[in-house]
Structure formats: structure tokens, C-alpha cells
Amino acid sequence: MIFKDRLPDPDSLDFKEVFTDFYGQSRPVVRAIALRIAGPAADIDGMANETFARLLATLKAGIDIKNPGGFVRVTVSRLAIDYHREARSDAISAETLPEISIWSSVSHLVGPEVAYEVMELHKAIDSVLSEPLRNTLLLREVAGLTVGEVADILDIGKASVATNVLRAKRKLRQHFEDQPIPAMTEYLKGGKA
Hints:
This protein is mainly α and 193 residues long. It is built from nine helices and no strands.
């Protein structure tokens, strides 16, 4: 049986097969959303598993879910935002940092200058933007969710999503006009080999 758009009642005979099919189709998307929002240091598989466990618990509680795809996207986005909030408040330790191979791979793909600019942009997103602007920008522009999905996750109106994204981009542009990213050669000066 192929999953189309709705999951049957958990007590029905074909539920296990349909749920397994839905899980197989949705898991890569759920993992991608978690990775984009929470970053490579997060427990992506744990967030994905928690998302599907919440879906199953909701269905078993007798709550009808008209759009299971939307349910899992919203759930994993909220879990990833929560992780992102907690990670920001925790002190950075060697265990929470991603492996160096992840960052060196990025540098090899796009070049050290671009990797450095991306790193500076991420720092600015965390330090310059307020939490509502940061979360809206990450969900809309980085995770690629629709305006409606972002509005549902953050509990704001659709117009507020567009406004927050524009404000976030304006603040970032202003930040980099006021404090341009130093040239890569300047950044690397002074070190010893």
C-alpha cells in the first residue's frame, strides 16, 4: 500500500504498512529540516525519531491529523529550534563542536574565503538578530519552509513572517555595512605555523 495524504486509524489492519511507507518517504525530509535548523552537531536522528514518536502518540490518542506531512515538518522544526535555543545558552565544549572534517569539506567545496564569509554570517545571525527575527529567517530562508508553515511553528501571522524576514535581512545588511568582513589575508595574519 502506498501512502497518499492521510494516515488510517491506528487500530486498522493496514495502519502499520501505511505508517511504515509514510516514515520511509518522510524521514529524509525530517532529517534535512533538523540539520538545517539545528546544525551538524545536533542529534539529527534523535530529533527525527522523536518527531515520528509524537506523530504516533497523537494518532493513538485519537486525534485526527489531516496533513501528516505538515505535522512532522512543524514538529521537527520546533524540536530543532528548541535545540538551537539550548545550544546557544550552553557553554561551548569540544563535544558540542562538529567534526573538523565537516568544516574543512565546506572549505574544499567553496573555497576558504566563502567558508569564512559563511562563518561570519552565522556569527552575525546569532549576535545581531533578536530571537523572533533569527528563528523566522532560519525557518524561511535556511530550512525553506513555506510562509504558512513558519507562521504555524512560531505562532505568528503570515504577514509577520514576511516582515520579520525583511527586518532580519535589513539588520544583517546594516551590520556588514557598519562592520565589513575583514579580508581573508588580514584574518590569517599573525599566526605561527
